[in-house]
Amino acid sequence: MTDITKQAISPSRSLVSQEAIQVFYRLLAALLICAVLAVLSDSFLSLGNILNVLRQASLTFFIASGLTLVVLTAGLDLSVGANVALSACLAGTVIHQTGSPLLGIVTALVVGGAVGLLNGVMVTALRIPSFIATYGMLWVLNGLTYWYMAGDTIHGFPAGFRQIGSGYLFGLPIPVYLLLVFLGIGTLFAQRTIWGQEIYAIGANPVAARLSGIPVTRRLLLVYAVSGTMAGLASIIFLSRLNSAEADIGESLTLPAIAAVLIGGTSLFGGVGTVFGTFVGALILTLVLNGMNLLSVSANWQPLVTGVIVILAVWLDMKTRRRTQ
Amino acid sequence: MQYRKLGYLALPLLMAAAFTTQARADGETIAVFTKNQTNPFFQTVRVGADNMAKVLNAKTLHYIPTKPDSIPEQLSQIEDVVVKKPSAIVFTPVDYKAMVPGVEKINDAKIPVVNITDRSAGGKFLSFIGADDYSLGLETARYLLKALSGKGNIVIIEGVKGSLTNVDRVRGFNDALKENPGIKLLASQPGNYQRLQALQVMENLMQSNAQIDGVLAANDAMAVGAIEALDGANRKAQVIGINGTKEAIDAIKSGKLLASGDYNGFAQGCLGTMMAIRALREQPVINEIVLKPTIITQDNFKPFDVPLESRICPTFEEAVKLGVK
Questions:
Q1: Cα–Cα distance between A8 and A209 in angstroms, integer?
Q2: Which InterPro entries has this protein been placed in (chain A) (predicted)?
Q3: CB-based contact (8 Å) between B40 and chain A?
């Protein structure tokens, strides 16, 4: 690739630093929440609780990381939670039937990825707006999962498999390693590869992207497939951590994942945002709930507080963005 | 008392009725309305209804909202059913207040209807068969507090805040706590009936509370989530759940769960269908049965540890006894 095209599709130097400023503000917000919680609760700053928060944030992050790429292209994937549920239920069955966790993991990734790819096909080939296509997919997946499970649960998995979600390695929970790995891969992919830069370009201006020779369709297919595959990965973590799967696990996963992406500063209009920001978004959401549990905030107030924090985070984002531009 | 009297009155009538009306009234269609396909409780209700219909030579048709507990969906299902005109309806409202207009539609269409599980706030019913969430919470909590000899630290994991089931169950929990001044309530936090949320809440609560002796969870999925969190931290506490799901029974068997309060969903399905068919065959019915909660423990889990399909419905004579509050 020549320097000129590279320049045309990759964000300019100043834009990159603006991204950095945005992420910095978010980290600051997260640290502020941490500082407040540390003052209010003795147990907040314990190592145990910090690992706890990271492990809890990881599940939201896995789902949200793939979703970030979709949102970067100005799309949305509403089917991720339902995808987690179906993948978990099928993977759970495979592990029960074959006794092989590996086959279960493969099943979850393949099912998750295939669902994602199908979303991509609907968005590209059929030109259905992603909001509608993935909303439809949500229903299809829920229907399949409800029918398949018939109100049952699948539970009890081999101890080795349980390690993925519940185990420790050198004192750190295994999901935290996975979190770091996928945070690294996601950031490198989005920030440092041509494909990643092309995804930003598609979100910023799809027509310009097409005209400058970016294979828009293929990149969109990739993005939705990645989002689905990450849902498949999340389903494995879910299964091994909770030791069971049921049909309605997805409902409570989709919106926090979307919220993490948006709190993380990725714009719904596409082209702006980072995977690292999404990680901070997932962290903020987890911190808020963790803090309310530690402080025994009444169950009545928790949704309200969460809602206010989400709105504040996005408002703060818009404000700082306007100032830096 | 009044039910027992009713039962004595009913017996001779029943014998007479068996000879005169049964033959001509075979093969009725009973439309069974339940709230969702995700809660295992309603699966037991449906199997109970099918079981009873089979015994009495009738058929069942199931109406379940595809989106769990959807008010508009159940309303439109009622409209469909009124057109289809089944012989009778066994009805669980997805919302006890909001579905009253729906029940009135059924009444206007002159289709006989039995109310099960959640008591409708209005409309005319042949009978009501249910259990009450308050005594379910109270009795299950009492069992746990007794197991702890009335002292120790307790946490409550609540269901969806504001839902009727949760309000009543948690009220029951709290009343049981009041009877035991030696018990300290550390926290009452929401898990929204979701196992992942319950697991995370438990992880968080363990950070700020070094000693937790008992967990009162408003359903089994959350109880199992809490147990996973305890296991993960190598801590022990007595945990109770509510619903008597298969998963809970497995956990009781293996000694991980202390007890689960059972709502007798299977019996509710059986008896609701029985009353509907009996009314059609002009046999006496019982107007109200409020089932006592069953506390499933290690001592009595055996009858619950059989596949639903091979459970046996109570007879009318047994129902007469069950009717006694």
A1: 9
A2: ABC_transp_permease (IPR001851)
A3: yes
Cα angle B92, B94, B98; round to 5: 110
What's residue B235's pLDDT?
95
B92 interaction partners in chain A (CB closer than 8 Å)? none
Q: Does B200 touch chain A (CB under 8 A)?
A: yes
Tell me whether B197 touches chain A (CB under 8 Å).
yes
- Give the model confidence (pLDDT) of B240-290 as tens digits: 999 888 889 999 999 999 999 998 889 999 999 999 999 999 999 999 998
| Domain chopping of chain A, boundaries | 53-319
Tell how many helices (H) and how many strands (E) occur in chain B: 11, 12
Q: Which two tokens stand for residue B283?
A: 């046999």
ipTM score for this prediction = 0.82
Q: Give the one of A155, A290, A303 whose C-beta lies nearest to B204's C-beta.
A: A290
Mutate to test the interface with A, among B92, B154, B204 (most CBs of A within 10 A): B204
A310 CB neighbour count, 10 Å cutoff: 20
How many helices (H) and strands (E) are present in chain A, helices listed first? 14, 4
For the beta carbon of residue B2, count every other beta carbon within 10 angstroms. Answer: 12
Nearest to B158 among A44, A143, A299 (CB): A299
Q: Enter the DSSP assignment of B30.
A: E
Is A293 within 8 Å of B201 when comparing Cβ atoms? yes
**Which CATH number is A53-319 given?**
1.10.3470
Helix (H, G, I), strand (E, B) or coil at B305: coil
* Residue A230: other Cβ atoms inside 10 A: 30
Amino acid occupying residue A53: V
Rounded to whole angstroms, what are the CA distances from B118 to B97, B164, B291, B315? 10, 9, 12, 22
Q: Does B197 sit within 8 Å of A294, measured CB to CB?
A: no
pTM over 0.80: yes
Partner-chain contact A56 B221, CB within 8 Å: no
Q: Please name the residues in contact with A194: beta carbons below 8 A apart, sequence gap of 6 or more.
A: A1, A6, A9
Is the minimum CB–CB distance between B225 and chain A shorter than 8 Å?
Answer: yes
Q: Facing residues of B183 across strands?
A: B152
User: Where does chain B have alpha helices with state H?
Assistant: 2-20, 40-55, 71-84, 100-108, 133-147, 164-178, 195-208, 220-232, 246-253, 265-280, 316-322
Token pair 């709502």 is found at B263
